[in-house]
Every structure is written in structure tokens, then in C-alpha cells.
Amino acid sequence: QKEVEQDPGPLSVPEGAIVSLNCTYSNSAFQYFMWYRQYSRKGPELLMYTYSSGNKEDGRFTAQVDKSSKYISLFIRDSQPSDSATYLCAMSLMTTDSWGKLQFGAGTQVVVTP
Amino acid sequence: GAVVSQHPSWVICKSGTSVKIECRSLDFQATTMFWYRQFPKQSLMLMATSNEGSKATYEQGVEKDKFLINHASLTLSTLTVTSAHPEDSSFYICSGSGRLGTDTQYFGPGTRLTVL
Known about the structure:
heterodimer, A: 6-stranded mixed β-sheet, B: 116 residues, 7-stranded mixed β-sheet, 11 strands, globular
């Protein structure tokens, strides 16, 4: 079983809809949670990061962490065709031994149709 | 801010030759840099971690003699693929960490290596 599970999609939504992305994880020691966006043939771009349970909002993006359920989500409101990309969740233990070692989900491909 | 560049963005080489990829943090000091490879439609696989002035730490299964990593300064790391073979063809991505003292990594745009 992978430490981080993420549905690879593709997830197709019409323009203007809310995109809902999820990851589940098995290691309750994960402390730090990130979402990256990756366009085809490009490096991942950091969208959001959070340490704690609850919601964090940044513009059209909302990241949600539920540590008790070991579940994180990313919501994209008013989706645009330019949001079409692969979204990767990543998490970290934030310990000295594991410094910098991120566990990535497989990535979900999102397609926003005009 | 937090920009990482890679050079070249795309390289084609003959089997048996060596290829060097540069990774630079442009607006922050990357105390730690990471090298990943990514196959089509797959997630990132960490190859190695390097700290400035130290030897790189390689992940299990990654040949250290084949993938030479040098982290000469706080803004530059290089990955050299020695005696490249077609199975080394992949998308190589570096990232830097150290900004704001968090575990956040900032990724470069990637280098696509094709070995003929």
C-alpha cells in the first residue's frame, strides 16, 4: 500500500465549476501538507501549504486538512481552462531524519472544458 | 520569489556519452537541493538529496556512480548522467529548499533527456 493515495483521474469539469481533489495517507506522523500544480513537460509549481488541520484559503484555492481522517483536499472555485493540469499532493514528516523527503501522490489530471 | 532554473531544458545525446544538468536557485539560498526523475504519467521519484559542500545522499536503487551530483554553492547543483543509455531517458527535475526555513521545495522547470 502506498503511503499517499491519489486518484489519477482524469477529472473533467466544465469551466466555472468547482474542482475537488483529494488525497488520503496512511502515516499519521505527516505534519506538513502541500499541493503542487504541474503543467505538461514542466516542473511542479507550489500552490499551497499548511501545517495544521482545517481550511486555508488563497484566492480561488482552498486547502483542507483532516488529520483525524488522514485526508487532505484541494478545491478550485470558478475553474478556468488554464487550470487544466496535473495536481500533486505532497506531505512531509518534518523530522530531522526525513528533512526534505516529500511523499507525493500520483497526481490527478484535471481538464477544464470551455 | 523562490525561482529555480534548470539548464538545459531539453537534451538529446548518444548512448555512452555523459550529460550535465544544472540547477540554480535564482532568488534564494538553497541549503538543500533535490533531484527527481519522472516518467510519463507518473509521479516524481526522488533520486538524491544534496547539501551544499557535502556528498549527496542517494535513494535506494539509484547508482551514485552513474548519477553524479555536485552541490558546489548555495545556488548551484549539477547532476551528471554518466555513460547514458536509452533507459536513462526521462524528465529530470531539481528542487531547492531552504527558503523561510520550511520543508517547502521549489521546483525547476525540468530537463528532458533523450538518449539515442
